[in-house]
Hints:
Layout: E1 13-14, H1 15-22, E2 34-35, E3 37-39, E4 49-52, H2 65-70, E5 75-78, H3 80-86, E6 95-98, H4 102-113, E7 122-127, H5 132-145, E8 150-153, E9 157-162, E10 165-170, H6 178-190, E11 195-199, H7 202-206, E12 215-220, H8 228-231, H9 234-242, E13 249-255, H10 259-263, E14 270-273, E15 282-290, E16 293-300, E17 304-310, H11 317-330, H12 335-338, E18 352-353, E19 361-365, H13 370-380, E20 388-392, H14 402-413, E21 416-419, H15 429-441, E22 450-453, H16 457-467, E23 473-477, E24 484-487, E25 490-493, H17 496-506
Parallel strand pairs: 3-4, 4-5, 5-6, 7-11, 7-12, 8-11, 12-13, 13-14, 14-15, 19-23, 20-21, 20-23, 21-22
Antiparallel strand pairs: 1-2, 8-9, 9-10, 15-16, 16-17, 18-19, 24-25
Helix pairs in contact: 4-6, 5-11, 13-14, 14-15, 16-17
Amino acid sequence: MVALSRPTQLPPVALSRLVALLGAQLEPGHQLVEVSGVTLRSPEVRPGDLFAALPGANTHGIAFAAAAGDAGAVAILTDPAGAAYGSTVDASLPCLVVVADPRAVLGQLSAAIYGDPSRRLAVLGLTGTNGKTTTSYLLEAALRAAGQRPGLIGTIETRMDTADGPVAVPAQRTTPEAPDLQATLALMVENGVDSVAMEVSSHALALDRVAGTGFEVAGFTNFSQDHLDFHGDLEAYFAAKALLFDGRAKYEVVLTDDEWGRRLLRPNTVTVSAGEQRRADWYGSDVLTHGGATAFVAHGPGERELQVRLGLPGDFNVANALVALAMLDCAGYDVEQGVRGLEAARVPGRMEVVAAGQPFTAVVDYAHTPAAVATVLRALRPQTDGAVILVLGCGGDRDAGKRPLMGKVAARGSDVLIITDDNPRSEDPAAIRAAMREGAQSVDAAQRGAVVEVDGRSEAIEAAVDRAVPGDIVVIAGKGHEQGQEIAGVTTPFDDRQILRTALAAHGWSGGQGP
Length: 515
């Protein structure tokens, strides 16, 4: 991630203490060395740092150890392969700390270097395929309304209040690498933050990024296919998600509306259902959606009933709000106060309405999995008697198996599907579109709308606006809050919301506010 900064009020830690935590051996002559920070990127090394030289996909981090030493690193954490390579380098390297799996211990070390910050925070961690970001924003809003001073760590940004005002930094990944995460948590402690709503990705769990982090509450939203390029299959993907529920959190909140959630249940699990499953600890009823808002009744333990209003469209956000309220309750905060903060919560690129005075509805959403696309279309369909026009692509260098599935659910749920590009990355955009088209055309013609293919995302958005008539809904899905598009290794500025506004303005609609 792009670092907010590092904490400034922590004393250095003896390298000997860190090595003792690992049960490793400290090289002679380094007993007095002190460590003040940690990083795994050599350009970010500061004097007094421990540099984590990890094996990479193409290059071992030990190749940058000499540069790290020149920048002031006092120790290098690496594996036996790194140590062997380091012994051949014609340069003076800092003290080597060698362990079998440095990534597995990096979280614990980073936490120790930065004062174990999660022990002084209520960390509320969320995992699941879809809904993590929205739920984290709702949770942050509820924490603030309940009188807390929360921080937020997730897919869109890391943010918190400081003495100089609010600070927000765009995220490079959903869950930061362990050194960045612990530095951020420590910085939050220094700035008076007392609670954190944090997204925890399957990658972060599989790669031990959250090791060393204590969780007050762990929450689960839902599960469906994604990231199989990394995990291999659904069971391995689910196993990674399930790591958040291995006893590392004091309380566990699980949405039980799918079989995957039910597999996580243990005797003390707090259960949530978006439907009227009255056996759940938290469930919703009397759901009303209109325009850009949703209202429902939340039922909680002790026969509590809370009137909930959300400034977000889509009945699926009932589940997100219920998980947020259940987590707030488990953490011991005032839910009756917290629920008042939900209506004002907004989530960039999540069912975000773009209004410029046009006579049809235009929505930008991050939906980039088959389940998410289907959910968005189901939520929007009842809101119009007109056509639902969907612009959708699939990312390159990612789970290729979901491309035909995306095409299938998109064709089935929309009246017009415009297949286009997302972030092709190193792949041929036409090949990605062809896989989506194959899935779309597998749907019986009587059960799908028109399917067209447009080369170029800007052109596809313009085509959707050109087609729309009063009463229609235009949905631009897949990229949401993202502000760049990666093609052939080059990322150029690209924001679906801005492109949509430009297309609307070309038709004479330029009112409203937003990105």
